[in-house]
Design brief:
The chain is mainly alpha-helical. The protein contains 16 helices and 4 strands. The protein folds into 3 domains: 56 residues, no CATH class; 125 residues, Serine Threonine Protein Phosphatase 5, Tetratricopeptide repeat (Alpha Horseshoe); 134 residues, no CATH class.
Length: 380
């Protein structure tokens, strides 16, 4: 291959710099040669050159020989490199039909076929091909790449891309299939980086769909199983946000508020600088106010039904546990009207236990959670 005079020069690698440095310089020279060749229309694709680490030179690969296993597969690879996926897919399917699974390069052919199917939107067939490669050739150099391909298939399903059935006559969304692929990665490939990535993707998927209880659980699994991950702060914060978002209102069980409080508190303790930047202390105050409102609503229920002793109990709880909340002001005013004194605040753990047990006397009809009356705070 002739090099234009303006690019022609001699090069002698500095042996003192070591093979790595000279190799990098050789790669730079090869890029110039490749660009010059492309300008003359002599080189179409980079796969025609390969670097020889022994000679520290780029050498041109021999043209594929059609009609041989290696030659036909190399020609198919060229089509893939040129992003001519439909043509490459036909060539690969023909290769597999002609040569079968006996050649050493069969796993490579299977991987290339799966990748073409993925690029052409044939997600179900791509998944089947990647799965066959992972199951039948787990030690192949293409197994890790196939796992990455599977992750891409799962992403497409979770994004709402449609799966084709009956030869493409019907298409339907297969988000559950995407979750199944991620679950398989998490369980069967737990020692790979993609397992961690799959766990986060699944949690994010549930959160984006508003399925906050599932999202909270999945983020919690992430924080437990990957405590040293760079995504650990994100997962811990998201688990708290998901717990808070799953609380439907003061008429319902406040367990999500307790979970959110615990997780935000852990985030504040573990990542104090980030927590302050993200106004986590403000969120904790908001949770406290909502818990106070919840307890005040229980007191008002008993007050309305003339169960005065139980009402006094919950008014006192509201005023004593969250003394700075707006609900506490209303509780104190009502206690004064009922002639009851405000108790001293309990420590948080004892207060939670007391609230869930309810008043020890006074005719309160305990049921549900949080010491509330039966039927008051069912999750809806």
């Amino acid at each position: 291959m002739a090099i234009p005079a303006r690019l022609r020069f001699t090069f002698a690698p500095d042996r003192r710099a070591g093979p790595a440095s000279s190799g990098v310089l050789c790669m730079g020279l090869a890029c110039l040669v490749l660009c010059a060749g492309q300008a003359n229309g002599e080189v179409e694709r980079g796969e025609r050159l390969t670097f020889d680490p022994q000679t520290e030179q780029w050498r041109r690969v021999a043209e594929p020989i059609p009609g041989t296993p290696d030659g036909d597969l190399d020609l198919a690879r060229r089509l893939v490199a040129q992003e001519r996926y439909p043509e490459a897919l036909k060539a690969l399917e023909k290769w597999i039909k002609t040569y079968g699974a006996e050649p050493d390069r069969y796993p490579e052919a299977l991987y290339l076929k799966a990748s073409c199917l993925l690029e052409t939107g044939e997600y179900r067939d791509a998944h089947d091909a990647y799965s066959a490669l992972l199951n039948d050739f787990p030690g192949s150099i293409y197994a890790e790449r196939a796992l990455s391909g599977e992750f891409r298939v799962a992403e497409q399903y979770l994004a709402g891309k449609r799966k084709k059935i009956w030869g493409g006559l019907l298409r339907f969304k297969n988000r559950d299939g995407g979750v199944e692929i991620l679950d398989d990665m998490i369980v069967n490939y737990a020692d790979t980086p993609l397992a961690e990535k799959a766990q986060r993707a699944k949690a994010d998927y549930y959160f984006s769909r508003g399925e906050f209880e599932l999202a909270e659980d999945e983020y919690a699994v992430f924080t437990r199983d990957y405590p040293r991950s760079r995504w650990h702060p994100y997962a811990l914060l998201q688990s708290a946000r998901a717990a808070l978002a799953s609380f439907p209102g003061v008429k319902f069980d406040d367990a999500p508020l307790l979970e959110a409080q615990e997780r935000f508190t852990e985030f504040l303790r573990t990542y104090p600088d980030q927590a302050r930047e993200l106004d986590v202390p403000v969120l904790l105050d908001e949770i406290a106010n909502r818990r106070a409102e919840k307890t005040l609503e229980i007191a008002r229920f008993y007050d309305k039904t003339r169960q005065i002793n139980a009402a006094r109990y919950y008014y006192r709880q509201t005023a004593a546990r969250w003394p700075d909340s707006p609900a506490a002001l209303q509780a104190r005013a009502r206690l004064e009207a009922l002639g009851g004194a405000v108790e001293q605040p309990l420590d948080e753990a004892a207060a939670d236990t007391a609230a869930r047990t309810g008043p020890s006397a006074g005719g309160a009809s305990r049921g549900g959670s949080g010491g509330a009356p039966a039927g008051w705070d069912r999750r809806g």
